[in-house]
User: Fold Acetoin utilization protein AcuC from Hoyosella subflava.
Amino acid sequence: MRQHPEPVPYSVIWTPEFLSYRLSESHPMNPLRLELTIDLAESLGILAESEIIRPDRSSEQELLRVHTPAYLAAVQKVSAPDSGTHRENRLIGLAHGLGNDDNPVFPAMHDAGMIVAGGTLAAAHQIHSGLARRVVSIAGGMHHAMPNYAAGFCIYNDCAIAISWLLDHGYTRIAYIDVDVHHGDGVQHAFYDDPRVMTISLHQHPATLWPGTGWPAELGDGAAEGTSINVPMLPGTPDSLWLRAFHAIVPGAIRAFEPQIIVSQCGADTHREDPLADLALTVDGQRLAFRAMRDLADECCEGRWLAVGGGGYGLIRVVPRSWTHLIALAAGIDIDPATAIPDSWKERARGFAPDIRPPERMGDEGRVEFDRWSGSVVGPVTGPPSAERELARIDSAILETRRAVFPLLGLDPDDPRD
Assistant:
């Protein structure tokens, strides 16, 4: 089922309090996905080998690293509806992105946001203190939240808060890699003019998906020009082409930047079954993306890797498998995608969603083999004309991003060795 390479100190951040982040009964970001992930990791014996760290809520002072006092006050006010009239609270909320379909107000929302942020901060503490080199907090990844408003299901931007904390504790080069299907706009915004932080986002093309940002020309400002890297991909991009783009851009950029730590946002909504987006990855491809980021941390950062969750709305069939692979990879365990899902877990999943057929195995038999980018616009193609068109499109996207940013990193955009 799995192989155990050399052990590396790692930990998992988990508390049942994470399940309090529930925007509404019908909202697609249902914390059931977190609960079923932990259950699956436990069923496969992964957590038996893990140190589980129970986090505290972040302090309001830590939230102010990224968010404005006015925004915190608004979240607290709408979280306690007795503090004002319904109309007053609604107007205050809407002015800060709260109370709409994406970000409905729910009881104790401020506290729920603080425990998620506290989880990612606890992960940063673990790595900084030397207690662990790899840490996973699947509840984190709220990468859309902006300084003064909520966005895209995200109340407090735990990723940016933890990165800010690391900067204040001696880190001078931090790489943030975001593989969520949506652009990591909130984290990019937080560090757009900070040359100490490189943000890399691979996402569905902004012309086809919210939030409409993440173009290759978004490079960073001033001294930080070249530290914002965006790789947009057209709807329907499968594992093989997504991985081709990742390996054509991310390793070269990371090696040039020489980070001391990698922070990874591991959204699982790139999956072909995700109901809110249009990429076509499988769990097999997602697993290889996570493994590639882990291996880059081993190569470039002495193993320092902080991984969080993010998007992902295939609550039964996708997210639990994807993030169980993530937890396992942090532990140095490679779960074979052919591994059978335990019957006990499938039965539990059916109890939550009788109409959804649970997966049978830890992979989707995805076609993850890919030809590495060769430096030409279109590589050698075997197959129908549609395959040639798809390859031409991904290679054009690769070149657009490389030509926008690689010269700023001292790299040759046309040389596949860089």
The domain at 10-20+28-53+119-369 is CATH 3.40.800.20 (Arginase; Chain A). The CA atoms of residues 73 and 110 lie 10 Å apart.
